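Record type: monomer structure entry
Structure origin: computed from sequence
Chain ID: A
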Amino acid sequence: MAAIREKVINLVIPKNEMEMSFSTALDNGFILGAELHTNHDDINNLAVYGIYDDSGVAFSKPCHINHWKRREGSGFDDSYKPLLFETESKTFSFKVKTQTEVSKDTYFHLILMYKIREGCA
């Protein structure tokens, strides 16, 4: 039996900086999808978000942050950006980068939806 859980990855690009990253091991389970919340609102400063495996290879290639936002009008499972991968307790890096320096502290909260296997949490 598996339980659905959320894990939040918080990244903040400090004012006058262009990128931030964070690495962490994820609980053993299956990542269903993700959604991103941010206060980044400068449409002239492209922001991209990506997930990398423990060898530095882009697991989910960096793409525009709007591609990570929750989709309205879909069912629960379809409203998240699909990721569909086993974590295998590996370490993953989460990276966000903008084209130019941000004018304020800019947060990016990624919510991962995943199934944790009973006895593995």
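Annotation 1: The two ends are 12 Å apart (CA to CA).
Annotation 2: The mean pLDDT is 86.
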